[in-house]
Amino acid sequence: MKDSDIEDAVARVLSGYTGVAAPKPAFKPAPEGCAWEATKPADPMDDIIGGILTRALSERNCSCCKAGDCKGASGCLSISDAEAVELGDGIFATMDEAINAAAEAQKKYLFCSMADRKRFVDGIRAIFTDPAILERISRLTVEQTGMGNVEHKIIKNRLAAENSPGIEDLVTEAQSGDDGLTLVELSPYGVIGAITPTTNPTETIICNGIGMLAAGNAAVFSPHPRARGVSLLSIKLINRKLAALGAPANLVVTVQAPSIENTNAMMAHPKVRMLVATGGPAIVRTVMSTGKKAIGAGAGNPPVVVDETADIPKAALDIVNGASFDNNMPCIAEKEAIVVNQVADFLISEMCRNGAYLVKDPAVIAKLEARVLTEKGGPKTDCVGKSAVWLLEQVGVKVGPEVRLVLMEATKDHPFVQEELMMPILPLVRVPCVDEAIDLAVDLEHGNRHTAIMHSTNVRKLTKMAKLIQTTIFVKNGPSYAGIGVGGEGYTTFTIAGPTGEGLTSARSFARRRKCVMVEALNVR
Ligand code: NAD
């Protein structure tokens, strides 16, 4: 769109509101700092014009980007892999610089309107629902981390962009009475330090970025070093887009070389008021012991229980789909099946009809154990997030691409059952009855309070398991990913905080409850 077209469009819209042709506004580039603050209108109509103009300008930038002829301009989303890790657009040399910049940005952000926040959040959604960007970040993640599959990462990234709650999540409470009116509002913490995992690097940046900005915060990300390139690219894309929308610069930042030292510096920095760790037990323990407000979203070991009342063909398909999703890397994915003996053979045969490969030979199982487990019994990093075809190939079994899951029977003490493997190997434990299945599931979940799944048509047993297991997510008669909004109702989160109790985090989890009291007034009942 040309500048003159934009001006004409604004004039046309204005004449619709006023009934008379409006004077053409002068061209203004996207302002530095908050758009609302910089162009604070004397007349509400100016606000409408400002919104139209900013949107038109950002559309202009986007179409330029796609044509590749606005390189380097504010809002240009055409960033090469090499450029993604250069300084600028939210990428800083040191953690101290990054945090100071975010703190400055957040001070300006306090004076932006809720409508501005929504525009900025919508801007983030727009970046990561663009099919070309979705494909690129998903492919880069697989290339850089060596884990997962592109197709499923596209689904996860899109889900984070479309379905993470925004400002509508911040609901104000009001109490009125003889003594006046009190409001309880959800207010930002300030600068939040967010640590992100290798398994969902971009999904977590998108999801946390939307929630933290919606709640009025600035975010400092500490990505996993293995996902450095794609994490920095995502942060740079967000900064470019926010700049085009007139947001304060550096609301979302990180360092050029993410490392454990930098994460430690972030956690210790006095300007970081809240920490959010999405990762394994070590980092969750670490943030919880900093003395700061911390949200810990830690490991899971989700059991799936199947009883004799379940729709077995459906349960089999759901389990294969859930346990093979992104090569079993989601923390919510089925990690072990506990099946009532009466239906176990039927379930196994149905799973094999739907992409599971049953390994029965004890020698092959022994080879698999040796290949994928460390001496301590945990998963070897180079096997995490690999495909079933790759894993079987490692132990001399050649299968076609239709195989999505390695299935084997095991006893409850087997390390594949006890450990969170994060690869598409599903051990199946037989039990005599549903009550034993539920007890074992509670045991194998290890008190993570993360995710569990059950296939049953017995409402009493479903209720019993839900009560006893106390997980944040409990999926009944569906694949695990229904719990994050793929084919299940409800919003999406990639930070499921069992240990610290926030559970399904969203914008309101990144906000403080503050009280505003008006005494002896504004009670109009
Ligand atoms: P990880 O714990 O190895 O790393 C997570 C992040 O913490 C990374 O950024 C890493 O650099 C950092 N980190 C780890 N140890 C650290 C230390 N001692 N000091 C400073 N920084 C440290 O986990 P991962 O392999 O990236 O991710 C997989 C794990 O995360 C699994 O256990 C999975 O269940 C869990 N996870 C949980 C959720 C959830 O919502 N609960 C979501 C995704 C992943």
Automatic annotation (TrEMBL):
<dbReference type="InterPro" id="IPR016161">
    <property type="entry name" value="Ald_DH/histidinol_DH"/>
</dbReference>
<dbReference type="InterPro" id="IPR015590">
    <property type="entry name" value="Aldehyde_DH_dom"/>
</dbReference>
<dbReference type="InterPro" id="IPR016163">
    <property type="entry name" value="Ald_DH_C"/>
</dbReference>
<keyword id="KW-0520">NAD</keyword>
<feature type="domain" description="Aldehyde dehydrogenase">
    <location>
        <begin position="93"/>
        <end position="479"/>
    </location>
</feature>
<dbReference type="InterPro" id="IPR016162">
    <property type="entry name" value="Ald_DH_N"/>
</dbReference>
<keyword id="KW-0560">Oxidoreductase</keyword>
<dbReference type="InterPro" id="IPR012408">
    <property type="entry name" value="Acetald_propionald_DH-rel"/>
</dbReference>
<dbReference type="Pfam" id="PF00171">
    <property type="entry name" value="Aldedh"/>
</dbReference>
<protein>
    <submittedName>
        <fullName>Aldehyde dehydrogenase family protein</fullName>
        <ecNumber>1.2.1.-</ecNumber>
    </submittedName>
</protein>
<dbReference type="GO" id="GO:0016491">
    <property type="term" value="F:oxidoreductase activity"/>
</dbReference>
